[in-house]
Amino acid sequence: MPNFYDDNEDLRWYVERGVDWDPLVRLTEYEMKAPDAPASVEEAVSGYRDILELVGGFVGDEVAPRWKELLHAHPRLVEGEVVEAPVVREVVEKLGQLGLFGINVPRELGGMNAPLLLFQLTQELIARADTSVCAHVGFHGGIAMAALLYSVLEGTTTFTSDPPRIVDTRFRELIEEIVAGRAWGSMDITEPGAGSDMAALRTRGELLADGTWVVTGQKVFITSGHGRWHFVIARTEDLASPNGADDAYAGLKGLSLFLVPAWDWGPGGATEGQKVWRATFDGVEEKLGHTASATVSISFERSPAFLVGERGRGFQQMLVLMNNARIGVGFECLGVAEAAWRAAKAYAATRPSMGKTIDRHEMIAEILEDMQTDIQGIRALAVSACWHEEVSQKVELVSRFLPLDPARKAALEAQQRVSRTRSRALTPLLKWLASERCVAIARQAIQVHGGSGYIVETGVERLLRDAMVFPIYEGTSQIQGLMVMKDTLLGVVKDPGGFLRDFAAAQWTSLTGDPLARRVAGLRLVALRAVRFLLLRLTGAKARELPLTDPGAWKAAFANWDPKRDFALAMLHAERLTSLLVDVAVADALLLQVERDPARADVLVRWLERAEPRARWRYDEIVTTGPRLLAILAASGAAASGAASTSASPLPSAAK
Ligand SMILES: Cc1cc2nc3c(=O)[nH]c(=O)nc-3n(C[C@H](O)[C@H](O)[C@H](O)COP(=O)(O)OP(=O)(O)OC[C@H]3O[C@@H](n4cnc5c(N)ncnc54)[C@H](O)[C@@H]3O)c2cc1C
Predict the structure, then answer these.
(1) Which of 252, 270, 286, 294 is the most buried (most CB within 10 A)?
(2) Same domain, 334 and 222
């Protein structure tokens, strides 16, 4: 098998030219003063390249060829413990020996102190070989870093600045166990009665008289939930809230985050292997794909728990972990999509039909080009979202711990504001795009293979089965759509002047920019017109009269606007709006790349060729469809409740 890094020209372009490594390396290496820090940014990047080559070679040679074994490597529940198949243990342990469990953990805690972006790039390489292995490895380093971040944010990590290093952290035991490969963690949110709707969570956290906490409840569908360390979200406050019992989202304010070990080590310690159980594994799911990954249900019955951060802030804290996880899904999708595209391309180059190989037939050639273009678009968004998320998190760490001169501090804070906004905007777009397109790409790979694609032996149909969960976990596609819609529309309501300026700028560039910039601006105009249409429809007749050039009039019109009222049309079109904004975000990212490297124009042209007609179609759907279905829903809602209310749509802020 080839080296999965060396053979990937697009991925290598990012490492060599596309990523602005300088800020990432400086922040990660505590302004280059960390003990054992590389002498320069170039030296650091050279080390990252070595890691990618090592991992790319390993997964190509040692993981990908074992896909058939992994396909049948179901974990099993045996006498209360989840037992992994030997092939999974073996492969995951070997990846751990390459240093991947602690790849982004600081050196003083036993890790390699690489940027989060590098961790995600290695995840892509592993996912191209096998998604189950990718998930399991991810729940090592990813959980260790989440624990460290939580500890820093709650103020339980101590640091010395000369030389800059972490002295101690509340979650040292967890981090050291994970880095050493003796444990891993999980993110326990979903319950039998609550998935997307986190306000419906029922697991309870109870404060005992001695000041300690216990957690009681069941969590289901937990990836790698057979490990020791569980970040559990539980209710600590009653549902009743100042907003009243009819507020479906009052429940979010009553959630807290806990760290709950599924077991403690007995007097013999970890080496003796004696477990004192604190939770019960109820079962391991059999699934459509990801067959070697353990998806576990687990029950806590007054299990000793450690409150993380502030009581009642669990939802906000879980979002930190979930945002990283959503970006992670973007990279996981890239791995699967690469595997699908490469298999299709190789097959099409050798399969003869009607006098030539099928890659010479127009329709198949177009499918192959579609697949490649989508992968390049996803990668552009994934790298950008990850970069901004990492910068915003690391500025937080560095400015808490390092004495910075005022100018540097101000510059970092300014960058952090930009990166926070960008990361918030890009993350749901990435999750939606990557997961939806990965499913489509995996299906295209089967189509290119014809009948062989449908046969298990070929190894292509498993990619579609693996891909099918991406639009479901870490927040479904519909939930991403709701997030995007809510942020976009409320953003305009809060800053109508900004919206009008965007509009004017896009109009200007669409007339005066260079050819590619004009086309990107034209795409943006379609999206902005869709936003304006939705706003005008939602706010009714008063907004219809608003002059496009007068922000003051817009502000006044929206002053008493309640987004809970009549949101139905926007809810209906949330995914369409997301699709439009995705097309613009990818085009923006690719246009920036062209400024850096004109050779990237080819990718942007291919993206625009597809995005332009797609955007016109999406816009058309938004402005011409909806009222008929909404009238039916309103009538049936009124009949069911006996009231003529059409405002039953929940606000998306509650959803994960
Ligand atoms: C393999 C696998 C691994 C998983 N790993 C984890 C894990 O590690 N940790 C964890 O906590 N959970 C995990 N999950 C659970 C996963 O996050 C949930 O399944 C997901 O959030 C959806 O919740 P649900 O299944 O209850 O579906 P529901 O929330 O009931 O949704 C059903 C359908 O309704 C739609 N829907 C719901 N609400 C709305 C709305 N307001 N507007 C429009 N549409 C809506 C959804 O998009 C979906 O299409 C995993 C699931 C799977 C299958």
Answers:
(1) 294
(2) no
**pLDDT for position 645:** 41
Looking at the fold, whether 10 and 150 belong to one and the same domain comes out as: yes
**Residues 387 and 499 both lie in one domain:** no
At 278-309, the pLDDT tens digits run: 999 999 999 999 999 999 999 999 999 999 99
Quote the number of domains for the chain.
Answer: 4
CA of 654 to the centre of ligand 1 (A): 13
Ligand 1 pocket test target in 189, 190, 629 with most atoms within 8 Å of CB: 190
- For residue 27, the CA-to-ligand 1 centroid distance in Å is 35
The reported pTM is 0.94
Whether residue 502 contacts residue 459, with contact meaning beta carbons closer than 8 Å, is answered with no
CA-based nearest residue to 320, from 213, 392, 248 = 392
Atom of ligand 1 nearest to the CA of 188: 11
Q: What's residue 651's pLDDT?
A: 42
Alpha helices in 34-112 (DSSP H): 41-58, 67-71, 86-97
Q: Which domain holds residue 420?
A: 314-475
Domain boundary among the residues 278, 297, 312 is at 312
Which ranges of the chain have pLDDT less than 50? 243-246, 248, 643-653
Query: What CATH number does residue 323 fall under?
Result: 1.20.140.10
| Domain-embedded: residue 480 | no
CA gap 290, 70 in Å, rounded: 9
The DSSP code sequence of 87-109 is HHHHHHHHHHHTTGGGTTS-GGG
Compute, in angstroms, the gap from residue 481 CA to the centroid of ligand 1.
14
Q: Is the CB of 435 under 6 A from ligand 1?
A: no
